């Protein structure tokens, strides 16, 4: 997106509702909206929060330029007094959010917006757009990296991303989720993340023969020399030619710091094992074998199980598009309205579907860790004013199936509040960490998950529970609504 001001990056209905609130001044109360999602992408056990830095930029830039107002005027939907009001519009509210790179679970607020409803309503679409996209790709990257069991994953998807923005911000999110580098140079420039790459088949095809192509490449890039060996015949031509070049480079005394081959077709398990043997026998046990070709977490996992001799992976389409799960279902729901005395009145949205009934009130989240292992036991959503003493026992129960209870004994668990203030009174009070620092934080976050939660198929779910007080408010509201 080649413009900084994304104020009109919204659904028309946000603006028509905004005009409605404007015309009925009593409607412009301060409200609370929560961003949350209902199920983990790819049927996984968790998601990775991402996109907050871009949400912050969006809120900071939020204003209607003269050009924006002229455009809206031309739609013949908005009246002059409302258009005049837009001239001085800015965000004056509070935003709390879970920092990027944090592992998150269904139904907990990822972002909480507290603002006059005209402001809070407008920002719904852009916030969801940004958080939904980046959290989806960061989660996918974490899954792919998990499958690779510590091997490096390079993000290769720019050519297949759904447009330039998805390519750049998707690569940013993929780095947060654990990729070691991206081929996306603009992402590297914007976010100071490592860029890496090999070469394409066209490089080989542009030379009279494969050997000359390899040799020329190796002479130009001896410190990052990964040769693509499958243009003609991987085992009969590609690997032998690569070995010949490596031998010549070694003989010439050229120091190779990072060198090897890339497989991009055929049976990657079989070819990698054969290639490993050939490279080892030729005296190149440290030559890297990397692979690409429509890979995803399941194929990488399968190749690992097959004993493939691959230690570096290039993943494009499946990662940048989150091919098996194209959308992160984040939603934005009103949870409270401030009354005249300044207290928040909890609001609830009913649904036939229990999962879709919202959690009311002004909330915060405690992450509950098992003290001994440091692993996540559950998340506890409670009201802002609630505090818990770690030395006392803590009752956890599933809000969807409240008869399922666990009591943690005092001293056996620790608590961490996971939402941080981002904007207070319209002023930003949070500095986004650098992407590589978010990535490092995300690794420590992923370590707090049990392996059973990280596994790719049928993972163990982490409970997101409500405090007794919040649960009672919810049940009370539900009772009252069903009686009215
Ligand atoms: N040993 C393996 N086990 C499971 N899947 C594999 C294995 N080796 C390769 N694959 C995957 O199988 C899919 C199809 O590979 P296939 O051999 O058809 O590609 P190719 O035809 O050789 O390559 P291309 O069409 O890109 O030139 C790819 O997603 C690839 O990653
Ligand atoms: O995970 P992937 O989507 O496969 O991304 C990486 C692929 O991109 C490149 O080739 P490209 O797809 O342009 O052509 P190819 O399919 O003919 O190899 C590269 O050679 C990889 O195969
Ligand atoms: O550098 C590479 O090898 C690369 C980059 C993008 C897509 N496929 C491969």
UniProtKB/TrEMBL annotation:
<dbReference type="InterPro" id="IPR041619">
    <property type="entry name" value="NAPRTase_C"/>
</dbReference>
<dbReference type="GO" id="GO:0005829">
    <property type="term" value="C:cytosol"/>
</dbReference>
<dbReference type="InterPro" id="IPR036068">
    <property type="entry name" value="Nicotinate_pribotase-like_C"/>
</dbReference>
<keyword id="KW-0328">Glycosyltransferase</keyword>
<dbReference type="InterPro" id="IPR040727">
    <property type="entry name" value="NAPRTase_N"/>
</dbReference>
<dbReference type="GO" id="GO:0034355">
    <property type="term" value="P:NAD+ biosynthetic process via the salvage pathway"/>
</dbReference>
<comment type="function">
    <text>Catalyzes the first step in the biosynthesis of NAD from nicotinic acid, the ATP-dependent synthesis of beta-nicotinate D-ribonucleotide from nicotinate and 5-phospho-D-ribose 1-phosphate.</text>
</comment>
<dbReference type="Pfam" id="PF17767">
    <property type="entry name" value="NAPRTase_N"/>
</dbReference>
<keyword id="KW-0808">Transferase</keyword>
<comment type="similarity">
    <text>Belongs to the NAPRTase family.</text>
</comment>
<feature type="domain" description="Nicotinate/nicotinamide phosphoribosyltransferase">
    <location>
        <begin position="153"/>
        <end position="278"/>
    </location>
</feature>
<dbReference type="Pfam" id="PF04095">
    <property type="entry name" value="NAPRTase"/>
</dbReference>
<keyword id="KW-0662">Pyridine nucleotide biosynthesis</keyword>
<dbReference type="InterPro" id="IPR007229">
    <property type="entry name" value="Nic_PRibTrfase-Fam"/>
</dbReference>
<dbReference type="GO" id="GO:0047280">
    <property type="term" value="F:nicotinamide phosphoribosyltransferase activity"/>
</dbReference>
<comment type="pathway">
    <text>Cofactor biosynthesis; NAD(+) biosynthesis; nicotinate D-ribonucleotide from nicotinate: step 1/1.</text>
</comment>
<feature type="domain" description="Nicotinate phosphoribosyltransferase C-terminal">
    <location>
        <begin position="362"/>
        <end position="474"/>
    </location>
</feature>
<keyword id="KW-0597">Phosphoprotein</keyword>
<dbReference type="InterPro" id="IPR041525">
    <property type="entry name" value="N/Namide_PRibTrfase"/>
</dbReference>
<dbReference type="InterPro" id="IPR006405">
    <property type="entry name" value="Nic_PRibTrfase_pncB"/>
</dbReference>
<keyword id="KW-0436">Ligase</keyword>
<feature type="domain" description="Nicotinate phosphoribosyltransferase N-terminal">
    <location>
        <begin position="8"/>
        <end position="132"/>
    </location>
</feature>
<dbReference type="Pfam" id="PF17956">
    <property type="entry name" value="NAPRTase_C"/>
</dbReference>
<dbReference type="GO" id="GO:0004516">
    <property type="term" value="F:nicotinate phosphoribosyltransferase activity"/>
</dbReference>
<dbReference type="InterPro" id="IPR013785">
    <property type="entry name" value="Aldolase_TIM"/>
</dbReference>
<protein>
    <recommendedName>
        <fullName>Nicotinate phosphoribosyltransferase</fullName>
        <ecNumber>6.3.4.21</ecNumber>
    </recommendedName>
</protein>
């Amino acid at each position: 997106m080649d413009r900084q001001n994304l104020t009109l990056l919204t659904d028309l209905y946000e603006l028509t509702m905004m005009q409605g609130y404007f015309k009925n001044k009593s409607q412009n109360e301060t409200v609370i909206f929560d961003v949350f999602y209902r199920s983990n992408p790819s049927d996984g056990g968790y998601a990775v929060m991402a996109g907050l830095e871009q949400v912050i930029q969006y809120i900071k830039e939020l204003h209607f330029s003269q050009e924006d107002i002229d455009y809206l005027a031309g739609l013949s939907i908005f009246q002059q007094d409302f258009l005049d009001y837009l001239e001085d519009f800015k965000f004056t509210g509070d935003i709390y959010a879970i920092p990027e790179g944090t592992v998150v679970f269904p139904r907990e607020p990822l972002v909480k917006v507290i603002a006059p409803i005209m402001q809070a309503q407008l920002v719904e679409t852009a916030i969801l757009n940004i958080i939904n996209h980046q959290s989806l790709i960061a989660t996918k990257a974490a899954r792919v990296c998990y499958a690779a069991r510590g091997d490096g994953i390079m993000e290769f998807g720019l050519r297949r991303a759904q447009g330039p923005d998805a390519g750049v911000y998707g690569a940013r999110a993929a780095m947060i989720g654990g990729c070691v580098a991206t081929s996306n140079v603009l992402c590297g420039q914007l976010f100071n993340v490592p860029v890496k790459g090999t070469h394409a088949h066209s490089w080989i095809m542009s030379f009279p023969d494969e050997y000359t192509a390899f040799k020329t490449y190796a002479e130009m890039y001896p410190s990052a020399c990964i040769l693509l060996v499958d243009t003609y015949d991987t085992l009969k031509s590609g690997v032998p030619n690569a070995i010949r070049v490596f031998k010549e480079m070694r003989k010439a005394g050229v120091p190779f710091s990072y060198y090897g081959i890339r497989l991009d077709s055929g049976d990657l398990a079989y070819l990698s094992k054969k290639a490993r043997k050939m490279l080892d026998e030729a005296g190149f046990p440290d030559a890297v074998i990397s692979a690409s070709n429509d890979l995803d977490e399941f194929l990488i996992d399968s190749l690992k199980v097959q004993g493939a001799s691959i230690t570096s992976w290039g993943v494009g389409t499946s990662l940048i598009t989150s091919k098996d799960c194209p959308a992160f279902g984040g939603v934005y729901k009103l949870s409270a309205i401030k009354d005249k005395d300044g207290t928040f009145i909890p609001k609830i949205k009913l649904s036939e579907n229990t999962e879709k009934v919202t959690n009311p009130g002004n909330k915060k989240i405690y992450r509950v860790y098992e003290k001994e292992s440091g692993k996540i036991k559950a998340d506890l959503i409670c009201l802002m004013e609630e505090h818990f003493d770690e030395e006392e026992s803590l009752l956890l129960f599933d809000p969807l199936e409240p008869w399922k209870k666990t009591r943690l004994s005092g001293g056996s668990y620790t608590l961490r509040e996971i939402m941080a203030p981002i904007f207070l009174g319209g002023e930003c009070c949070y500095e986004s960490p650098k992407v590589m620092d978010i990535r490092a934080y995300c690794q420590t976050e992923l370590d707090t998950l049990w392996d059973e939660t990280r596994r790719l198929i049928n993972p163990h779910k982490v409970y997101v529970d409500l405090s007794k007080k919040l649960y009672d408010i919810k049940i009370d509201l539900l009772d009252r609504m069903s009686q009215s």
